[in-house]
Amino acid sequence: MKKLYSFFAFLLMISLNSKSFSQINIGLSKTDATCNGYCDGTMTANVTGGTPPYTYIWSNGSNTPNLSQLCAGTYSITVYDVNLDSAVVSETISSPTTLSVTVISTDPSCSGDANGTATATVTGGTPGYTYIWGNAQIGSVISGVGSGTYTVTVTDTKSCTNSGSVTISNPSSLTLSVIGTNPSCNGGANGSATAIAGGGVPGYSYA
Predict the structure, then answer these.
(1) Looking at the domain that runs over 2-93, which CATH code has it been given?
(2) How many Å apart are CA 162 and CA 133, to the nearest integer?
(3) Quick one: 29 exposed, middle or buried, by C-beta within 10 A (0-12, 13-18, 19+)?
């Protein structure tokens, strides 16, 4: 009987020694969301150690090593091996701030002129912006423009887009009227003339 017990103890020892008691290690790789509000992030669990096969349990309920279509937020995963040993890690999917476009302008100096400008200022998104205006000009600033509404579409390095617009107005036409007062007597020198300017851009000078 002793020999039988010794034999089973030997088998148990072999069985225990055959199991891998190495620690489970989880490495998470990710891609963040491309644009603000997008849910296109991904996350992949790379597992080593322990004894395969592994069981995956994510905080969002998924049970595969790969996640996709992720919104910004923190995700955790618990991995179990065949011996029910486990490890837990978490990672955060980030999202760029909102791509925002502001356009300011300077109006043409005179009625009918085309020397106005429009300037686009961009914040957020992922820097490395391209600018395309509705009149086919490119760059953050356009010049030599007359009255009208000008729209710019901005694209960042991750192909996120937004637009902004501004309306440029011409000053009204410059007008001039002269009001005269005759001298009080024939040959007198007490007459007067008054020039009245209108339109254009106030701040008139007379010569």
Answers:
(1) 2.60.40.10
(2) 12
(3) exposed
Please, are residues 48 and 25 in contact by the beta-carbon 8 Å criterion? yes
Query: Which CATH architecture group holds 100-168?
Result: Sandwich (2.60)
The token duo for 152 is: 């710019």
Alpha-carbon distance of 163 to 137, in angstroms, equals: 14
Q: Report the DSSP pairing between strands 66-70 and 41-48.
A: antiparallel
| Cis amide prior to 53 (ω within 30 degrees) | yes
What pTM was estimated for this model as a whole?
0.71
Name residues whose C-beta falls within 8 Å of residue 79's C-beta, 6 or more positions apart in sequence.
24, 26, 45, 47, 50, 54, 55, 56, 57, 86, 87, 88
Q: Write down the pLDDT at residue 53.
A: 98
Write down the domain spans for the chain: 2-93, 100-168, 172-207
Q: In whole angstroms, give the CA distance from residue 174 to residue 50.
A: 86
Per-residue pLDDT of 92-137, as tens digits, reads 999 999 999 999 999 999 989 999 999 999 999 999 999 999 999 9
User: What DSSP designation does 117 have?
Assistant: E
